[in-house]
Specification:
The protein is α/β, with parallel strands linked by helices. It contains three helices and eight strands. 21% of the residues lie in helices and 44% in strands. β2 and β3 form a beta hairpin. It starts with a strand and ends with a strand.
């Protein structure tokens, strides 16, 4: 077994794709038209870090409750974790691309980390080797 996808509520598909693919360097695995359970047209949009098994299903907010959840899916906590081999190079590249880091690099027992926000405002740990 493995976790295939985690759904992430976003304001706009194209804005989210531009961030995850353009700014973070993820692969766009799929972007297909779909229909929701309510008959509404939507898209099935999947992004993954290069070589990763698990990915994100980008789900455009539908309705007031979902729009209110954009950026707050983890109640202000870090809720997503991006592990990289070369922390310094990745941190520099992400910074150059305009990714917003809310906390700079520091060392923790589980690795070197920096906290950034995605396009929706969710917090992520960028994690490098110990």
């Amino acid at each position: 077994m493995n976790i295939d996808l985690v759904s992430l509520i976003v304001r706009d598909y194209d804005e989210a794709i531009a961030f995850f693919v353009g700014d973070l360097g993820f692969d766009l695995v799929e972007d297909s038209p779909s229909v929701g359970g309510d008959g509404r047209a939507k898209r099935w949009v999947v992004v993954r870090p290069p070589g990763a098994v698990s990915g994100l299903l980008l789900a455009e907010a539908n309705g007031d409750d979902q729009r209110a959840a954009v950026g707050g899916q983890f109640a202000g906590r870090v809720g997503l974790f991006l592990r990289v081999e070369d922390f310094d190079a990745t941190f520099a590249s992400m910074t150059e691309r305009g990714v917003h880091f809310v906390e700079g690099p520091r060392h923790e027992p589980y690795g070197r980390i920096a906290i950034f926000q995605d396009i929706a405002g969710n917090k992520w740990d960028l994690i490098g080797p110990v």
